[in-house]
Specification:
single chain; 14 helices
């Protein structure tokens, strides 16, 4: 199973929620998972109903069977300070640069370096071992940037090509790419059964493949149950309106005749949605990537819902191998 699980998706599809649930589902039976945030939105802290994450690895949840989930909000400026200390032993000089704004300037003026730092920190966690030679984390799950930016974000070799041909930055980028293009990594895309998210998912998969980055699975989130199809609506609205009225009356509803029209309108809208979802499933099928569906659990997502979603992912078994 890939040890670095990267989760991306169009904004609004629930990628952060899926990433958090995936970390919980992987951290089972005593395993340890690190959930990494790279966009500075503190979405993970909100999901786990905890205080804002600092730039340090902190345990935020206990999973089924005693596993542990740790979380880290990677800050590019702090990561650059770590980098300067690691390669140049700047120490207090690096902190002085930060105080005068030089670190922020460097990560802003050179976005390629910023991506190297963010991805590099996650890849370091993947490679890290404890004193006994065992991996510090069984899995690292990254809540990554949206689908439209994911390939450029992960393809750090391209990002630094015009910045450094040799030297520590170049070597760091090469080390990161060795992890990102290996079997240790899988990039999953979260979508919903709607035209724009599905098309962006298909485009994202094509870009990832062109960059030789490992595509994992498509996760269709917030799938509504199908109650009626178009044939059922036609039957009710055409020659069976009287039967529908009788059923409503037998249920004790007042003025059932007035309710038939609005109910059939809602049923028609549902049937149209079913047809739309059928079309979008066909688009995803043509992409040729394993696709898994997660149910809509309600209008909001609380901690209990997050654990329920983790159970749903756990039932998928080897889907994230």
């Amino acid at each position: 199973m890939s040890r670095l699980q990267v989760v991306s998706g169009k904004g609004g599809t629930g990628k952060t929620t899926v990433a958090a649930a995936l970390a919980l589902s992987l951290a089972t039976e005593g395993k340890r998972a690190l959930l990494v945030e790279v966009e500075g939105r503190q979405g993970i802290a909100q999901l786990f109903e905890t205080e804002a994450l600092p730039y340090e690895e902190r345990k935020i949840a206990v999973a089924s069977g005693g596993g542990e989930v740790f979380a880290l909000a990677i800050d590019a400026e702090r990561a650059l300070l770590d980098y300067l200390q690691m390669f140049y032993k700047l120490g207090s000089a690096g902190r002085a640069l930060n105080r005068i704004g030089a670190i922020d300037f460097a990560t802003t003026i050179a976005p390629g370096v910023r991506d190297v730092l963010l991805t590099g920190k996650a890849c370091e966690a993947v490679r890290r071992r404890d004193r006994n030679g065992r991996f510090a984390y069984d899995y690292v799950v990254m809540d990554a940037p949206p689908t439209g930016r994911i390939t450029r974000f992960l393809n750090v070799n391209y990002e630094v090509a015009g910045l450094a041909k040799i030297g520590p930055i170049h070597n760091q980028a090469q080390a990161v790419m060795r992890v990102l293009r290996s079997r240790e990594t899988a990039v999953h895309l979260v979508t919903q059964l709607e035209e724009m998210p599905v098309q962006e998912t298909a485009d994202g998969i094509a870009e990832l493949r062109a960059a030789e980055l490992p595509v994992g699975n498509v996760i269709v989130n917030m799938v509504r149950p199908h109650l009626l199809d178009e044939a059922a609506v036609r039957a009710a609205s055409c020659d069976r309106r009287k039967e529908v009225t009788k059923v409503l009356a037998s249920a004790g509803l007042a003025a059932p005749t007035k309710l038939v029209g609005p109910l059939l309108d809602q049923a028609s809208e549902h049937a149209q949605r079913v047809e739309l979802e059928r079309e979008q499933r066909a688009v995803l099928e043509r992409v040729g990537v394993p696709t898994y569906e997660l149910p809509l659990l309600g209008e909001g997502m609380d901690l209990a819902g997050l654990y329920q979603l983790a159970r749903e992912l756990r039932q998928l078994g080897k889907a994230f191998a």
